[in-house]
C-alpha cells in the first residue's frame, strides 16, 4: 500500500479532490483516497488504467461515469454508485445505497453486502453482482445487462424491463410489472457463472430465477401504423 | 294576448297561403327554411360534436388517443392577448431603420461558476427535439441553420447525433431520466448540459416515441428493441428530490470540469415554486416550457389539459427568481407556442432572458408545407392541419424515421429556411424594441406591454390597456 499515491479528502472542496484524483491518475497506477468522511461525488469520470481505493465509506455517485478505472470502496456507498459508467470495475465492500449502477452502460459493479432499491435502474449494459439482497424495484426499466443477486430480492423485482435481466438466488418478495420468471438454460447459467467466477462466487447448488420482460408493456398499438390514421 | 294581437287588423288583400309564409318555395318538407333546427346545429356546450366523437373513440379503442404537435385547447390565453405600447410622449423611440439594438444573449454566466457561459448572437435558440422524434436530416438542418445566425440547438433526449454535433456550433446536451446513450464523452463534447425534469406538452410524464419511429439507428442509440413503443421513465434514476439533485449538479460540474453551464428544463406547472427550487439546486439556467409546447407524441389528454400557459409561467418564474435574489445569477429561458419575433419580444418583456422554439422551427423546416399533397390526403389531413408527428408518416421528412420520407428533408434548403426565419424573427424583436425606445432587446419590460383581456392581465400582471392598472385580486 505504501507505493500508492495517497489523497486526503477531509473537508476539502470536492472539486479540488477530484482534480487531484484526475491528475494523479495520469501519473500513477494506484491511488488511495483517505479520510473520505462519506463525502459525495468522489472519483467522478475516472479514466481507464488506474486503480483507486477509497478508505471507509463514500456518499453519492462514487465512481460515477467511470470510463474504465478499478474502484474499491472499503465500506458502504451512498446513492448512484457507478451511475452512467461505461467500463471498469467497482467493488463495494459493504452495502450500496439506492440506484447503484443507474443507467450504466458497461463494466461491473460488485456489492459484497446488500443493495438498496432500484439497483441497475435504466441500465444499458454491464453487470451488477450483489452478494446479499437487492432492494425493491431492482432493474426498473433496465435496457440491457444483468443484475445478479445471490441473497434474494425485495418487492417489485425486475419492474418494467426492456432487455435487461435480473438473476436471483434466494427469496423474491414480489415480481414487478411485466416481469416473467424463465427457467435458465445450462448455457445461460454458464454465462452467469463466467461473470461470477473471477469473483470467486460460483456455486453450482444455486437455484436461479432468471427474470426477463414479459413484453406486454413494449407495445401500445403501434405495430399497425394504419391504426394511427384514425387519430 | 295572441287573440288580441291578431284580432284588430285586417290586410287590404287576401291572406297569404301558409306554404308561402313559410318560404314554401323550395323548403324541406316539415321544416321551414330559415328556422334553425337543433337537430342540425347541436347546441350543447358540453356535448359538442368533438366531445361526442371523443366518447366514440374511447368506446371503440378502449384506450386514450396519442398524437403529436401541441395543445388544441382553445381556452388558453395567447401572446395575442398582449400588445406593445411603443414610445410616445413619455419616452423616445429609436430610429427603426438606423439606430442599432443589441441582441446578444448570454446564458449561464451569472453565478460565475463555469468557464464557458453561452454567448448567443440572438435571444432565440432551437428547442430540445430528439433524433427519433425528428429525422437526422431535420436535426442536421436545424444545427446548420442555428449556427449560421450564431445560436444553438439542443439534442433532446435521444442522445447525441453526430450530424447535429458537427452542424451545431453550440449544442445543449440533454440528460433525460431515461439517459439514452449518455456517457462521459458526450457530456464533455457538449456546450451545455440540460437536466430534464419535464416538458410543457406533457409535464409529469416521460418521453414517448411510438414503434414506427424506433428504427434500427434509433434503437441502437437508445439501447431499445427495434420497433417497440418507447415510453421513457419519468423519474430520474439516481436522484429523487431537490437535495439529491444539488449533489447531482455538482457531479455534472466535476464531470465537465466546471466548463459548461447546466440547464434545468421543466414543464410549466407551479413555476413560482419550481423555479425557486431549481435556482436553489444550483443550475445556471432554468428553462420553463409552457403548456403550448409541442411534442412528437403524447396522450392527447395531457396535451390539452395539463400545464399552464407560457405567458403566465414566465411572469411567475421571473418573480420567483426576483424573490429569492437569483435574477442575474440564474438565466431564464421561456418556451411553448412561440410563433414569431413578436411572441419572442413579449416573452422577453415578461421576463425571459431567451426563448427556444420547437414547433416553429419544424414549420420553418417545412412541416405542414403544401407539398406531397397526396401523402397528406392519405393521412386524412392537409397542409396546415397535419399533426402526424407520432405516426412517423410525416409527408415532408421532418418528423419521421422512414428513409424515403427523410430524403424529402433537404438539409441545405432546410438550414437556410431556419436561418432566414431566425433572422426575420430577430428583426421583428428589434423593430419592437426600438419602437419602445430600447437599444437592447433585453431591456424590454412589463411597462412596454398592455393586456387586451382580463385573463391576460390577471395571468401576467401586465396592466390592462387604457386603464393602465393590472387586474388585481
TrEMBL record, chain A:
<dbReference type="InterPro" id="IPR036485">
    <property type="entry name" value="Glu_synth_asu_C_sf"/>
</dbReference>
<feature type="domain" description="Glutamate synthase alpha subunit C-terminal">
    <location>
        <begin position="14"/>
        <end position="174"/>
    </location>
</feature>
<dbReference type="Pfam" id="PF01493">
    <property type="entry name" value="GXGXG"/>
</dbReference>
<protein>
    <submittedName>
        <fullName>Glutamate synthase domain-containing protein 3</fullName>
    </submittedName>
</protein>
<dbReference type="GO" id="GO:0016491">
    <property type="term" value="F:oxidoreductase activity"/>
</dbReference>
<dbReference type="InterPro" id="IPR002489">
    <property type="entry name" value="Glu_synth_asu_C"/>
</dbReference>
Automatic annotation (TrEMBL), chain B:
<comment type="similarity">
    <text>Belongs to the glutamate synthase family.</text>
</comment>
<dbReference type="InterPro" id="IPR002932">
    <property type="entry name" value="Glu_synthdom"/>
</dbReference>
<dbReference type="Pfam" id="PF01645">
    <property type="entry name" value="Glu_synthase"/>
</dbReference>
<feature type="domain" description="Glutamate synthase">
    <location>
        <begin position="80"/>
        <end position="438"/>
    </location>
</feature>
<dbReference type="GO" id="GO:0006537">
    <property type="term" value="P:glutamate biosynthetic process"/>
</dbReference>
<dbReference type="GO" id="GO:0015930">
    <property type="term" value="F:glutamate synthase activity"/>
</dbReference>
<dbReference type="InterPro" id="IPR043578">
    <property type="entry name" value="GltB_archl_type"/>
</dbReference>
<protein>
    <submittedName>
        <fullName>Glutamate synthase domain-containing protein 2</fullName>
    </submittedName>
</protein>
<dbReference type="InterPro" id="IPR013785">
    <property type="entry name" value="Aldolase_TIM"/>
</dbReference>
<keyword id="KW-0560">Oxidoreductase</keyword>
<dbReference type="InterPro" id="IPR024188">
    <property type="entry name" value="GltB"/>
</dbReference>
